[in-house]
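Lecture 7, part B: from sequences to assemblies.

Below are the input chains for today's worked example.
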Amino acid sequence: MKRRAFVLSLPLLGVAWGCADSRNHAHAVYMLVDTSGTYAEEIGKAQQIVNYLLGTLQPGDSLAVARVKSRSFSEKDIVAKATFDSRPSQANTQKRAFKQQVEAFTTTARGSVYTDITGGLIQGAMFLNETGAGRKTILIFSDMQEELDKATMRDFPIDLKDIRVVAVNVVKLKTDNVDPRRYMGRLEDWQKRVVNAGAREWRVINDIEHLDAMLKS
Amino acid sequence: MADSPLWVIWPGNAALSALVWFLIAMPFLYAARKPVHELLRAVGHLAGGPLRQGSRWLLAAAHDMRERNKAVLLAHGREDAEQQIAREFERVATLVKRDLEGYPALQRRLLDEVTKVEEDYKKCGEVPPPPPDWIEAVGAISKVKSNGNELVVRVLEEINRSIKTIHDKTLAEYRRAYESRHKILDGFMPFWRSLDKTLTQADRKMTSLADRAASIDSQMERFEQIVKKTDRAEHMLTVSALTQFFVASLVLAIATGGALINFKLIALPMSEMVGAGDYLTASLRTSEVAALVIIFVEAAMGLFLMETLRITHLFPKIHGLPERMRVRMMWIAFVLLVALAGIEAALALMRDMLISDKQALLQSLAAAQAAAVQDGWLTRIPTIGQMLLGFILPFALAFVAIPLESWVTSARTVGGAALVMLVRALAVVLRVTGTIVRQLARVLVTLYDILIVVPLLVERLVKNGRGEGAGSAVVKPARVNLGVGERS
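Predicted structure of the full complex, as structure tokens:
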């Protein structure tokens, strides 16, 4: 009798196990920080955004901060990265260490001659896909003015499938002030490129306050 | 012109076109009168008949359900009344055992006290010895005239002195005797008091017994009503079930609030144990489910505890367990409940620590100057409060078993009554709809005749003309339904 009850309960256990949501609910964020030219002066704001992300991301989420320099397609450009522990206490400890790493970076960051945003995007997409997170976001803290040296090849299609790309604090250049169409055109070009790369969404957020709603969505 | 529909004969005058079409159609409508009438009536029957049948079936079903509900209600009521009467008899038995088993001793004590009082009373009745008999002789001598005789005077004086001495002695003796009687009477008081107290006690116990007897009488009357299956008993039980249902629902709602607070207390620290990143559904974390499971296990343990304490009767198997096993089970449930309460208290403490840690992290991330934290006892009050709450709530939840039992038993009655009402309401709706459909068919038949009123009038005139021509032939007017429904 007991044996039969046990055998009958097995399918129920299977159903209960199958009910578990197999999707990954973790959120992975890869933040590219432009350190080229005059934009390096904005690095304090980047620090604020990283702090904000540390306060917002939950245990189990991933965060990486990488710099954008002349050639950014390299793991060496990742300043700090962490997949936070699922235990809240451990996650808090990791976040404190992460903050210290980013602080150290902001005090020692040097400006670069060229700006390789595309290389950073490719590197970011690789990192995010490796995490296996359910939601993947690349934050580009830059003026979105890409400048490459002659030897660097970036004019090929890239893959940003299922990744949301958000340009943050896209400041206007002096030339943009002369002709605003250049600024608009630059953003449109990036949007076209990102969408063509299969990105889930392209957004421009200049006010950090709006970042909260975007990250929750 | 090109936009006009096909049926419009005169473009721009649709009404006239419609009238012409109607006039053309009228002979055909007249010709089809009988079949159309039959069709309308048949449609009315077709739609109305099943609705009425359905209504009848629902009413019969409602009657059956009511009878079944009544049977269940009376059975529950009977069982409940039996239990209550049995409980009353147990109480009476306890009273009798406790109070009346002391009655032989009480009676003996009362008899002793009465005997003592009687003895004392007899003692009170003992009069002091009467004055000596020679007093009469002395009285006779005192009447002797002395006439100055010295001897007689001396004798009389001597007698007087002796009598005074004797008088004083006798008086003192009388006083002593009365004093001793008063003392005896004084000694009566404690006995009287004791007697009064004993009798008051006996009276109180007898009154209590009489009250219980009155209660049993009332319960027996109720039981008789239930056994006779009277409407009064059914009404009484239904009202009682309704009250129980609402009261139990209210208490369960309060308990749900308590459970939610409990959940809030342990959901966050549970993520420290099972992780915060796992989800069971799109929005339900494993840690939250684990917290819910703990709360449900606590409620289940409370249920078993109440069951083994024989406060609730939800599981007949537990009541059928041997006494030793039942007591063991009770202790197991209690120990598990205490353990879970301890775990909850620890989780509440961990929650407080986690929140503090998170707050400190956020402050450091905001680069704001952290407020000086006072490490006094005041700051520990919320922590201690949370821990106490975490420890107490499981025990509070354990008592949910009592309203739950009331809710479950009364929900059957209330739900059954509501279902009967619903089925009856549905039956009424079906019946009204069926009647409306049948009446509508009649109205349509009449409307049809109104539409073809001209041919019908012509028919009547023709028939009247034939009737007059036939002379004695009986003229039967055509049946024209102008607002008068035909009986089917």
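Note for the exam: Chain A has a mean pLDDT of 84. Keep this in mind when comparing with the next example.
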